[in-house]
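Re: duplicated header lines in exported structure tokens

Our pipeline writes sequence and tokens for each protein into one text file. With two proteins the header for the second block appears twice in some exports. Here is an export where it did not happen, for reference. First protein block:
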Amino acid sequence: MGMASMSSGSESLRLCVFDLRRGQNEGQELDKILFFYPPDQTFSTQLSVIGLSEGLITFTRLFSPEAACEVIEAERHSHVFYEAEPDIWMVMVVEKNKEIEAIWRVDALQRILKEVHSLFVMFHGSIRALLEKEPTGGLTRSHLYPFITDYLNDLFVGKKLQLPSFRETLKERGTVQMLTLARDAAIEVQSLVGVLDSCAGTVRCHSMILFHDLLVSTTLSPDDTVDVFTYSVMRLTRNAISSGTSSWSYLRKGSTLSQISSRSSSPQLLGSSDPSLPSGNGNNAGRVIRPLQHDKWSKGTDGFLVTDIWGRDATPTILLQQTQERVYLLTYQYKNLTLVLLVPDNAIVNGELDISFVKHQVIENASAKILKVEEKITKGWGGENAYHVSGYRYLIVDTDMEVSRASPPGKVATLAKETLLAQNKLRETVDTEKSRTKEEKDMEISIRAKNNAWVMARLTRGKELYMALEKASETLLDATDSVQSFSHKYCSGVFSMD
């Protein structure tokens, strides 16, 4: 399965969000708590966990004022830290389990915190901005509790919480997976993108096109692309809407049945719930939207997806990181093709055009091109194992573009446990070195596993290659030659040692 299975008990996982600028005076300590999971823990327990976290942050800053605390390993727990915004911390406390499956990389756990925060900001804006709008913190908590709860639901299978384990070491959360196009298909896609960008008349739109759960095209920045892509794969693609679990998709789909109570903490902690306050999501003031709820999207008769998450007949909006621009989210689906169109909300607000006009333009001007693109991509699509390379199990990451490509999960699953454990250890070594240097540097590491398999890593100029080779007869020279051959044939020689 690739995930470490844990019970949903209060000791297995604790996740909190707190603000170091709040609750510093005696009697006001609860003010700093913005989110806590499990939500039914007593305030004394919540304050104990957050107090310990705050103490660890303060202590480590004495030795490294510029570098944030990232992880503290205790005898029974791993404490994973992420400073999501200045002085706003997210901390995950994970119980160490003697089961072999419960071996994880700290970076993989930290990426969960980064992902949920990034998605939250895309829908609601920054946590700090919400706190400034409504200083009691009630508005912020009323958004954080349901949002993170819905996100954690995706990590449950039955009643078991599934955290990334060593079996997922050849995957990279927080990146997009691209579809490679033939030249004729690429030309058709480029033509379609031009039409989509002009569907709002003189106002330029952004667009993203997906085929199954793979990215075909985007006009967004890398960071915004990751956020919109992640949400699309979680909730908007055909696989997501049909509630099917794609065996080859990078992002796993959680159970459609909520395993976590969605109730918030007590009214005392939530503070003000004044309906006149802005909700932070750009529309429907006073309404707390829950964009990560399951089974809330469906395909309308015109091909556009519809939802009541934002309210009846309301159009969803999101916030783009790069421009801090709020845009309307329109999603059109044809067979396995999903088109996401992002229309600046100021154009609609100013009365220059309306959403129905934009939808009509898409149907009127882009329908024929959409059919043609879907036909050409489907014809050239190699299926779930399209990116399998015989004899290799690999992961390629472009950290600058936030793109990754990996061996299909079904192929990675054929690797021996010893190989995966060695690969996990290799990635931990790379993570530690990257964290220590805080700058890009070329790196080459090779480890021989207990079963004589070779696991190898090469890093150069923002590109990373991780590989597992299980031919026990291979020497280090043979394994190095195999990596060289792979680099020349599939990576334009980027990872070659020539």
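Second protein block, exported in the same file:
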Amino acid sequence: MGQCHGRAARIGRQCRDLRASGQGRTVIRQLLAAGTLVICAGGGGVPVVRDSVTERLRSVEAVIDKDSRAALLAEQLDADALLILTDVTHVFADYGKRHARPLSTATRAVHLPEGSMRSKTEAAAAFVERTGSIAAVGPLDNAPGTLVGTTGTLVQAESVAHGAQPTAPATS
């Protein structure tokens, strides 16, 4: 196998360009300004680090948390709301058990086990805490219902859960 050049790294048998687009947020802002619904920050991609000696990027074994990435991107774009859409109607307490119950609201303090909706709830709560905007976790087939609260779980900051009011998304 030959050596990879430039900002490429070997992934399996192939050299893959590891350069970040740099235009991503600009393109997303243009699409939003044009009234386009933008769905982004899903899974995929190759985690990389810059080698301190060679200054080249190289792949590493890691997991990119797409929920945290979505929350960060929403914050960077000054989003009015963050919706994390999935294949269930709500975040559930005791998910997978006979006494599971849907949660209409949740905070970071809700005790969810690893492998449940914990990462989604934590990412949404972090977005709310950093921005004062709203966030919800709900079903992919009903994003509008999740946004208006007829389905899904509204994720709140602890301060909101204890009396302060959330900031509603701007309406046009």
